[in-house]
Amino acid sequence: MAERIMVKGNEAMAEAAVRAGCRLYFGYPITPQSEFTEYMARRMPEVDGVFLQSESEVAAVNMVYGAACTGHRVMTSTSSPGFSLMQEGVSYIAGAKLPAVFVNVVRGGPGLGDIQPAQSDYFQSTKGGGHGDYHLIVLAPGSIQEAVDLMETAFRLADNYRIPVMMLADGMLGQMMEPVVFPEFVKLEGINDHSSWALRGADGREPHKVTSFDIDPVKLEEMNTETHKVYEEIRSKEIRFETHDLEDADYILVGYGTMGRILGSVVKTARKQGIKVGLFRPITLWPFPYDELKRAARGKKFCTVVEMSTGQMVEDVRLSVEGSLPVHFYGRTGGMVPTPDEVFKELVRLIG
Amino acid sequence: MEKATYKKPKSLAEKEFSYCPGCHHGIIHRLVAEVIDELDIQGKTLMVAPVGCSVFAYEFFDIDGTVAPHGRAPAVATGMKRAMPEKMVFTYQGDGDLAAIGTAEIIHAANRGEKITTIFVNNAIYGMTGGQMAPTTLLGMKTTTSPYGRKAETEGFPIHVSELLKETAGIVYLERVSVSSPQEVIKAKAAIKKAFIAQMKGLGFSLIEVLSTCPTNWGLDPIESIKWLNENMKKEYPKGVFIDKVGDIR
After folding, report:
1. Are B46 and B87 in contact (CB under 8 A)?
2. Which residues of chain A lie closer than 8 angstroms to B44, CB-CB?
3. Residues 6 or more apart from A172 whose CB is under 8 A from it?
4. What ipTM score was computed for the predicted complex, to two decimals?
5. Average pLDDT of each block of 10 consecutive residues along chain A (352 residues)?
6. Which CATH number fits the domain B25-244, given the four candidates 3.90.25.10, 3.40.50.2300, 3.40.50.970, 3.40.190.10?
7. What is the nearest CA distance from A301 to chain B, expressed in angstroms?
8. Which one of A52, A66, A207 has the shortest CB-CB distance to B77?
């Protein structure tokens, strides 16, 4: 049996990326994710990989763009203000249909905000962030183990669909320590063969061109339509979520990431007191499990969304249930994390 | 017996240039393509085009290529080169792209000694967007955003990229050239070749600044443009070799 190791979230995610075959890392220090960058600085030389500390997040994302053009597994990690700086490059990467993985260890905002855990980058991550019609696949792990397990998935989805994939963590996941079992090293042979489009030198073949650009509106629309067909396929195949105690529940709690995990404790407490409450935890925030949540909400009395924000995912929850039941919201911001007790009291208040 | 003495380089694609009459991009493209042919690196060269008039450059070369976000070509090229160090990677950038929005990326790529080559085309104006002031615009020069002429008090001074970069330890070849006469074209080609050889030898970063005309936005015809370049641009931006750590390449 694989060994369980006590490890910090940022370092665990970095090691998982190395085991997923990532040998190219470009990044810029920012709290609360700097241990990720530091880990890669130590680790990449051990596996003949590339670590480069860029002059800015703007440069980092463009280094990722360049490396992704060659079709090799590449990633960066950052925290909220850094991801804001990367948005132009993310839009280019999405437009050029390049595989790449981003980790955002979200902190309190807006502006300089603070360095405590937050979930206030949901809109930015799931609705665009940069310019143009595009999406990232957004994965929201609820524990360090899940982040580790999802890392190879992130690279595989990026490779399979030629799309940037975001691992949306938060300062809590990045900074805390948990026992983790790491997966084996992935063998990449045959997995990410991007030789049909990657820029590797036009030796004995027609040159490849990788861009997000076409001056002809007819062709640009065709490009966008093609990309959106891929998005449709992702919507139909890649939705991930977790539920607990939903079957007989009168009430549903909805939360993702760290908050989803805290809501798990709330459900246990409530059940002990005879309150029939269940949990719905989206794991893919894009594509969002609209239909799945709508089905889960059928016949329930109300739904409460809890976020470390002033209410962002709650909009998608409302879209999901289409007015079929009341949707309440409870949130804390600025790095304040709702405690299980606090959420339980809110639940009791709402039940009345 | 007939002998071809002049033909299109293999590394240029079968595409008509989109450049204005009298613009020097066409000459510079050709020189780069000739160098790629002569070094026999067409099949292992990747290029990064900029945003600006030469945004289509990736289509004009018969090699693998991409377009970077505005100013970010050196970072994109860095990612490519680090992923595939055995390939040749070059950026082709104008003065708006490289000397304004992309200042950080070029300085840091150069300072890291990134083993890439940059062809920097300086025509002292933004061409693609219609003739706005560039950081390289000369004092007194009228553009659509300096309609009364560039003034030092309000717009600052023309930026000298090669002079700034010459203090950068990671550069192994740095030269400013022009292509406004046949002799200068020959010298410019030799400079570009040396820059590529510096990369082939894995020595470090190389950059060739090429002074260029923009007849359309300067409001001059092609002949007048060359005269203006010779009389004004060369005074502000003197030609010369700033760094040569490559040595004799013959």
Report:
1. yes
2. 201, 203
3. A9, A117, A258, A337
4. 0.97
5. 90 98 98 97 98 98 98 98 98 98 97 96 95 97 98 97 97 96 91 92 97 95 97 98 97 98 98 98 98 97 98 98 98 96 98 94
6. 3.40.50.970
7. 50
8. A66
